[in-house]
Amino acid sequence: MTHQLKTTILIFIIVWASSLFYTHAWGPMTHLFLCSLADNETATSSTLFYAGCNSPDILKKEWPELHSLEFAKDLFWHAYNSTTDDLIEFALGFGCHIASDEVGHHSKGFLNPPSADHEIEFNLDSMIYHERKGEKFDATTKSDLTEREIDLIIRAASQHTLMLPATHRNLRHGVISPNFIDQARIQSAIKHFQLLTSAERSLIRIQPSSLYQFELQRNSFCNNVSNYQEVIANFNVSADWAASTCILWRSTMWSLIKHGNLNEAAAIMHQAVNEMFRSNNGTSCVI
Could you tell me the maximum CA-CA distance found in the chain, to the nearest angstrom? Predict the structure, then answer.
């Protein structure tokens, strides 16, 4: 088998594997990296903070309505009222994930165009693994949830979905009852997520750096980039913004909970992200 044929087969496998993910935002390894940037600033260093950071994408395929700032603040409310510090950190990690997605999901953000988002996610995870000590951000090992975290999700989800209009209660399965989500179904979703992240990690370990560098430059939303270093300069801006939104989410939760009302949380985050883009000519591109 020639080197060119081997490379072609590898590219095909990587593109196919990346299409299996349904995040449409940052990939699992990149999410943990972004959470670590915020963690470095807030010095939480909680295992459950990182488990929370992983959880939205574990749930996203079956329960997309839970992948939102609105649910993240409901989760925090239930965690806060549980008076358990580690569950609060879990909920803050969950919100950190969603908040950083606000940066990646933005119509002028790094993860554009939408048609290439799976390839961007996978190749960005490869970059994190090979260039940012990505072995620390193994999503497979940080997606084990205990019954306590699962129970917290179920309680928050039951309240959250009852507050949704009937047309939004479940985008996949129609009308939801309060028991639409249970321990067994979440455990099944966890196993599926772990299978995908384990497969991704195996492919990332063998992916040549030249391949992910080429793909990231080829799919760059910032049209003026002429080399890989410029792609990374643009990513670093998005990463800083994502970490900032995570830190803002934490401070916003603690500020609003003192008044017993979290209803303004999502609006505060949307405004902050929009201001970041507005101040940089409407995009996250610096080059």
Answer: 67
**Residue 207 tokens, joined:** 């992916």
CA-to-CA distance for 194 and 129, rounded, in angstroms? 17
CA–CA distance, 31 with 105 (Å, rounded to integer): 13
Q: What is the DSSP string of the chain?
A: --HHHHHHHHHHHHHHHHHT---SSS-HHHHHHHHHHHHHHHT---HHHHHHHHHHHHHTTT-GGGSSHHHHHHHHHHHHHTT-HHHHHHHHHHHHHHHHHHHHHSTTSSS--GGGHHHHHHHHHHHHHHHTTGGGG-TTTT----HHHHHHHHHHHHHHHHTS-GGGS-TTTSSPPTTSS-HHHHHHHHHHHHHHHHHHHHHHHHS-HHHHHHHHHHT-SSTT--SHHHHHHHHHHHHHHHHHHHHHHHHHHHHHHTTT--TTHHHHHHHHHHHHHHTTTTSS---
Measured distance CA(30)–CA(20) in Å, rounded: 17
Q: What is the pTM of this model?
A: 0.87
Neighbours of 214 (CB within 10 A): 14
Measured between alpha carbons, how far is 146 from 82 in angstroms, rounded to an integer?
Answer: 15
Instruction: List the end-to-end C-alpha distance of the chain, in Å, as a whole number.
Output: 40
Measured torsion, CA atoms of residues 69, 73, 79, 81, in degrees rounded to the nearest 10 = -170
Question: What is the tens place of the pLDDT at every residue in 121-140?
Answer: 999 999 999 999 877 787 77
Where the chain has pLDDT below 70, the residues are 1-24, 43-45, 115, 141, 162-179
Q: Render pLDDT for 59-96 as a digit per residue (tens, 0 to 9).
A: 998 999 999 999 999 999 999 999 788 999 999 999 99
